[in-house]
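Regression test attached.
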Amino acid sequence: MTRDGLAELLAGQPSYRVRQVWEGLYTQGVGPESMTNLPAPLRARLHDALPSALAQVAESVSDDGDTIKWLWELDDGRQVETVLMHYPGRSTVCVSSQAGCAMGCGFCATGQAGFDRNLTVGEIVEQVVVARAAALPRRLSNVVFMGMGEPLANYDRTWRAVEVLHGELGLSARHLTLSTVGMVPGIRRLAGEDLPVNLAVSLHAANDELRDELVPINRRYPLDVLHDACAAYLAAKNRRLSFEWALIDGVNDRPADAAELADYARSLRAHINLIPLNPTAGYATRGTPPDRVARFAERLTGLGANATVRRNRGTEIDAACGQLRATHVPPPTSRTPRA
Ligand code: SAH
Ligand code: SF4
């Protein structure tokens, strides 16, 4: 719901009602039924006109309280996840853009379960609204599209959601990050948009043979094509580009992998985020152990690339992409090859 749409819905009411309802929905993150400053008949009418998109199925909180994960049911019974992460000085919400994902990356719990449907703009925005309310008194500053789904495969709704987060919720575009598996047409479209959001590309392999296997969309948009699209994004936006690299034991954590990655990243001045693979039910190979993660990072740095090792947030609450849903609704059988 936009502010103009709300004004239309409230036509005939005193004008301050628009502000009251707006603040209730977007600042406090509550439904109309909880807005006690409204007369009861209006509350009831708005409750019907503005149904909430997300019904909570589960909430899990990490032991230290810094990671909160929700599993939501949508109005057609599909389920998606949202994760709120508190860091010193900032809070970040990780949102889903699709129920499921059609990209079929074998190591990913969402990919293992297949594609249900695209999320609507409201379903995406409401995840942020709810997380922002839950984060209080801390200020929610960052949004990353790293939950379930491929945001650039749901481009129009994702982009509209970005505009709402920026315009209506007042989040800075510089604090919004879209993560893509490498949908080249989407990256090129993004380069032409007004808002300078951050782009994260899930690379995981820097040679086509291995990437074809880990990230099947690479067969359609191989590394050189992806490289050109990333370069075009950088040229247009001058925003930081980052590469995600989930370290998989014996698969993409060898010295040769570091050398290929360093070459690829250096030419784009990209920042590399390393994270040991989270175990999932449908993929036999495990994450790289911590000592070798550290060595891989040192090797990259020695080769002149920028790399940071990221903590696995909330592993104990299944907080990696698609994992909470997987524990509630086990995927039928893995449709993707096991390593
Ligand atoms: N579809 C988009 C965004 C959602 S996935 C994309 O792929 O970028 C968000 C991130 O989680 C991606 O970098 C993805 O590769 C990573 N990921 C998926 N499964 C993982 C796992 N089991 N362990 C670690 N990272 C994983
Ligand atoms: Fe989809 Fe991203 Fe998971 Fe690949 S890693 S299956 S693109 S959600």
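Expected vs. actual: identical. The radius of gyration is 21 Å.
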